[in-house]
């Protein structure tokens, strides 16, 4: 690994006692913020599964204060957990690391994890404790973005779609030139991009975009780990120049809100249709409590379906502003309560900027909870909670590309099958009358990626080796 590629341990040591104190404080208040009890709506629901018929009806489920906690909030409020015989204690987690580790160490029964966490835990990737994590459903697709600070704007960097409009096929080259020229003028301590966790697709996207633009992320800047609620503070104090996180923490940064940054690109512009969070459990939970697990997945699928419906999205955006969820309420009483949460949920997304120009773009695919909009490539019967095992293999190629593992595992298909339980999801969905794709693997066409480079899961090593910029790439020597 390059000396510029910090591990999670390096970062924790480097930030010192002050930030560690902040993190401990966040953990301390996390439990107090968690929702308690049942709503009147939930109490009015008549269970279709009796709690006494489940092996473990009382379970603890984590969630993190970002927009994708919406299905958890809805399952609690609307009584979907109760419908399937579950008494769920929701636990507000301080970060994606605590959400994952809560599962591994037994504090949580289920929790959302970043998309690479399941396979990285199984293969022992850098910074990941080995553990048999499993997931049978995706919580949502899209709903995240890359934020850059005001200095990068003043230097001349603009949202990705504007590069496309101005330069066409030369957009990546133009962005790469601006990006490198900016960082070349910065001291080492100001060449930092933050993400939420080492195995998050956000880390891979940050590195992917930089490398596609000709900038080596292992040599030319550092990637560090920061929990979502601390992104704004760290950018404000100039601890990093850019970050990638789930909403509403990008929207909060723009002019008219915190005024410290702008959105460079949404994750969907890097890979259209990409998975984000997975609902994870330990393998032993599925083995020991199979009925309980099926009830949990059914409750979460129904919650995702509810969040997906256009007529429900305003309600969803309002619900997650609560202190128990994102706590993202505007300070100005005259502002709408959903000022920060609505753009990512309703799709009126403002990229921001510091020139007074309105960069609000309306799109149906800003966050995808269940129904996939027609502009996103999809297979027959596909919906967003379905897991493609091929995408698990893509994540493994990125872990190998950036040196978190030595190479793509020879048993990558087996790792994908044990970790991404598409087989279980298909069974559970069938019981709910939901159609699913017939296959577990699919080829990702070139047009869905920012660099127009497709992915064939049948040849992951060839795909990995096709990238010039990667960890452990062969060094070319030229002799006269």
TrEMBL record:
Pfam families, per database record = NMT1_2
Top-level taxon in the UniProt lineage: Bacteria
Report which residue ranges the record marks as coiled coil: none
Q: Per UniProt, which keywords does this protein have?
A: Cell inner membrane, Cell membrane, Ion transport, Membrane, Transport
User: Which PROSITE patterns does its entry note?
Assistant: TAT
Q: Where in the cell is the protein located?
A: Cell inner membrane
Instruction: Enumerate the Gene Ontology biological process terms.
Output: monoatomic ion transport
- Annotated Gene Ontology cellular component terms: plasma membrane
Which family is this protein grouped under? Answer: Belongs to the CmpA/NrtA family.
Q: Any idea what this protein is called? A: ABC-type nitrate/sulfonate/bicarbonate transport system, periplasmic component
Source organism per UniProt: Cylindrospermum stagnale PCC 7417
């Amino acid at each position: 690994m390059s000396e510029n590629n910090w591990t999670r341990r390096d970062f924790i040591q480097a930030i010192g006692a002050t930030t560690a104190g902040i993190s401990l404080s966040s953990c301390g208040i996390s439990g107090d913020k968690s929702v308690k009890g049942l709503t009147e709506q939930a109490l009015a629901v008549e269970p279709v599964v009796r709690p006494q018929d489940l092996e473990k009806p009382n379970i603890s489920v984590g969630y993190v204060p970002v927009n994708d906690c919406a299905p958890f909030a809805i399952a609690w409020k609307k009584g979907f957990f109760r419908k399937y015989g579950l008494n769920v204690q929701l636990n507000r987690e301080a970060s994606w690391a605590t959400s994952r580790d809560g599962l591994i160490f037994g504090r949580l029964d289920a929790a959302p994890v970043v998309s690479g966490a399941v396979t990285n835990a199984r293969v022992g990737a850098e910074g990941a404790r080995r553990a048999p994590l499993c997931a049978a459903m995706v919580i949502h697709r899209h709903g995240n973005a890359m934020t850059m600070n005001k200095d990068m704007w003043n230097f001349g960097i603009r949202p990705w779609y504007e590069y496309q409009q101005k330069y066409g096929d030369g957009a990546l080259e133009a962005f790469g030139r601006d990006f490198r020229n900016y960082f070349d003028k910065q001291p080492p301590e100001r060449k930092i991009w933050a993400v939420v966790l080492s195995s998050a697709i956000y880390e891979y996207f940050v590195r992917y975009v930089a490398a596609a633009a000709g900038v080596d992320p292992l040599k030319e800047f550092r990637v560090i780990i920061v929990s979502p609620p601390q992104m704004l503070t760290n950018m404000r104090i100039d601890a990093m120049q850019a970050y990638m996180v789930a909403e509403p923490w990008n929207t909060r940064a723009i002019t008219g809100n915190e005024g410290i940054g702008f959105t460079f690109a949404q994750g969907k512009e890097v890979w259209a249709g990409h998975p984000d969070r997975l609902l994870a459990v330990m393998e032993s939970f599925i083995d020991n409590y199979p009925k309980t697990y099926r009830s949990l997945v059914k409750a979460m699928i129904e919650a995702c379906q509810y969040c997906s419906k256009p007529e429900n999205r305003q309600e969803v955006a309002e619900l997650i502003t609560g202190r128990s969820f994102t706590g993202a309420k505007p300070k100005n009483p005259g502002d709408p309560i959903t000022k920060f949460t609505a753009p990512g949920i309703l799709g009126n997304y403002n990229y921001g900027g510091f020139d007074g120009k309105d960069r609000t773009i309306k799109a149906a695919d800003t966050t995808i909870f269940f129904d996939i909009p027609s502009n996103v490539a999809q297979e027959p019967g596909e919906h967003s909670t379905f897991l493609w095992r091929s995408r698990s293999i893509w994540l493994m190629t990125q872990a190998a590309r950036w040196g978190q593992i030595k190479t793509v595992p020879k048993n990558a298909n087996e790792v994908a099958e044990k970790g991404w339980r598409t087989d279980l999801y298909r069974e559970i969905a069938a019981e709910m009358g939901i159609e699913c794709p017939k296959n577990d693997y699919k080829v990702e066409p070139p047009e869905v990626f920012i660099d127009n480079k497709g992915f064939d899961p049948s040849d992951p090593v060839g795909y990995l080796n096709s990238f010039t910029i990667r960890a452990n790439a062969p060094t070319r020597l030229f002799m006269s």
